[in-house]
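User: Fold this; tokens only.

Assistant: Input:
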Amino acid sequence: MRLKPKRTWSQHQLTAKLRVEGGGQHGLLNFERRRLLIDAAKTALAAALCWWLALRFGLHDGYWGSISAIIVLQSNVGATVTASRDRLLGTLMGAAFGFACSVFGAPPWNYILAVILAVVVCGLLSLRNSSRLAAVTITIIMLVPKSGSRWGLALDRVGEVLLGIVVALAITTLVFPDRARLWLRDGLGQEFLMLGAFFAAILEGFRGAPSQNLLALREDVLALLRRNSQLLDAARNEPSGPGTREGLSMLSQFGRSLYDALVALEFAVKDSHEDRFAQQLEPALSRLAADIHTGFIYVASCIHKWRFYLSAPGIDLEQDIANLEARMDEVRHTGIGFSQAELLRAYAVQLHLKQIARLLRSARIETSEAVGETKHAVESI
């Protein structure tokens, strides 16, 4: 059973823009609060189950299993797998170095040596997230007073941590599982919608006053790119259908490339409110810009449906580009009457619009190929 929202943010936006069906929910127990309550209940269940199992297995310090379960249990399956791997590797490293160094004298020098070695080795193995957990395990093994051998203590810690990890993975997989890849799909839909809004705000400042919300939109897009990057890392640790992981990764890469192209366009249109040369490029320039904006929305709808082989009706970005280039050739001889800066801005805007249009087209077509759709992608977006 999976926790399903009635409608997510991007679905709200798609409903308004594309008439995608969906239902809303309001009131005290909305989706986010239900998700918070279920996360809390899953954490409590994992901790209690670890404690009960530790008592059944005769583990005297079974609370370490509960602590491990609480630490590694994340909001989705992929993140839980990542945290479990880091904690298990850190515990194994810490147990090995803690036991090895405990046979050479008494603290503090052997303890300091063990921590240094564990952190350095984890860093060299690209396991930086495990280094702190290794140091914690070393501290428990070497500094916590307890009768018996250090080797027995090390094995106990590994067993307790392993118990916590197994329970956490079972809970996150079986009880209201939340898949990172599904959240990433929704996040990528949001990303392309917000990139489209960012694009519209940038062009608002072309031959006009700059948009008031341009800075806020840029920050929101950046925050969404970072969040989706984290979700992509988690989604890579989840089982998925053929091509799903490749498609999500490809869309994420295209999103970052489109953001870079939009920032370049933002610089290109700076101080263009008094330009007159660009007026001669109409209506080809406005047509391309309008179809690019529609293209962002259309790619977001493709992500929502996870269907990419169909082209957007009434849009042909390659033809729009050809029309703009033809118009540029027609008016090139008139450029002598305008400033060099104005001419350079117009050509820069044309180049950036062409790049954005082709990135949008490639995002749909190449993702269609990556996910293994049987129908051939058409040439236009």
